Amino acid sequence: MALLFKLKSLRLGYSILSSTFASKTKRFVVGDRKPSNFSLQIQLLCRHFTSEISANQHNFTVTYLINSCGLSPKAAISASKKVELQTPERADSVLALVRNHGLSEAQLSKFVRLHPEVLLADPEQTLLPKLRFFISLGISKEDLAKTLAFCPQILSRSLEKEILPDYNFLRSLIPENKVVSVLKGRSWFFFEGHSKNVVPNIDLLRQLGMPQSCINLLLAHYTNVLLLKHERFGLVVGKVKEMGFNLEKATSVSALRVLCGRHKSVWNRSWELYGRWGWSDDDILSAFRRYPQCMIHSEKKVTEVMDLLVNNMGWPSRKIAQYPVVLSLSLKRRLIPRCSVVKVLFLKGVIDENLHLGSVLRPVEKHFLEKFVTAYLKEIPQLLNVYQGKVEFQDV
């Protein structure tokens, strides 16, 4: 009501002002302050009225983001700096569209929080064609929803000028199912595009002798590596070569991933951790060359594996540096069951305690069971139960 009254007053003021100027123009003389004062009042009223409209629009946007999109008040205020809603109709249509394409309420909230501008997009003309294109590639609604929640900015790119060219570029290098995996797991490629950094980075790798099979591995699984700025990418590639990696081997791809994707602090933390377990600098570098991912495992995982293999099983710590891939194996599904069986065999004196850990942990399950379980069942009937976790090795 207050706004309506002010609006009526504003209109009345303009009417009076217009009438006054029309009928009494000749009566105004220089120095007459009444027209000036009246004009100032009108200007102030206009300014106040405009600011109230702006404030109400802002309040509506924040309220909408909270009630319809599930944002927290803090997130809604932050998002409202990027988008201002005049009415709810278009935003409602956008939300309905993405809900129909599989987004849960939690995903929808993240989708809007990361890219609130999407609420202003034309759902039929702008968004729907892109969604239909992604679905035509064979992406399930579930995977599409995950992609949109992770990288909603992909919908801000032009289908014809950006998304399709990026897709065709990838399709020319890797199989279509791998292109889909890039979209599902590394959708930033479709947001960043390929021309700025990916093409020059690939050209550099080719010049240095990396085969297409390794480049395809990067594209399909570690696309973010190729999105690095070209100058930094060149420095990382140089570092990989200095550390003794052969760019013709797949391990160089893993090394690029590790050195490109992690901060120096993570590298330093891993270096110090392995040092505490008795590895020399040469041991650490040797382990990195064999299995680059050893430098990005969590401290908790490394500590648990080393404690099991070194403290419980008695294998020398530096032996693990010679076979670092064991750090990637599941404790629950592989390491503990196998170590429990071998511990029983050690205690019973039926196998040599100098057994190489690779012969225990490397074989597939079938071969391990044949060599270490089935072969000793007559002597130790409970051995299979030990492997399955039904009996503790101390109880055999």
From TrEMBL:
One of its GO terms (molecular function) is nucleic acid binding. One of its GO terms (biological process) is DNA-templated transcription termination. Signal peptide: none annotated. Keywords: Transcription, Transcription regulation, Transcription termination, Transit peptide. Transmembrane segments: none annotated. Pfam families: mTERF (PF02536). It comes from the Eukaryota. Belongs to the mTERF family. This is PREDICTED: mRNAion termination factor. It comes from Prunus dulcis (Almond). The lineage of its organism: Eukaryota, Viridiplantae, Streptophyta, Embryophyta, Tracheophyta.
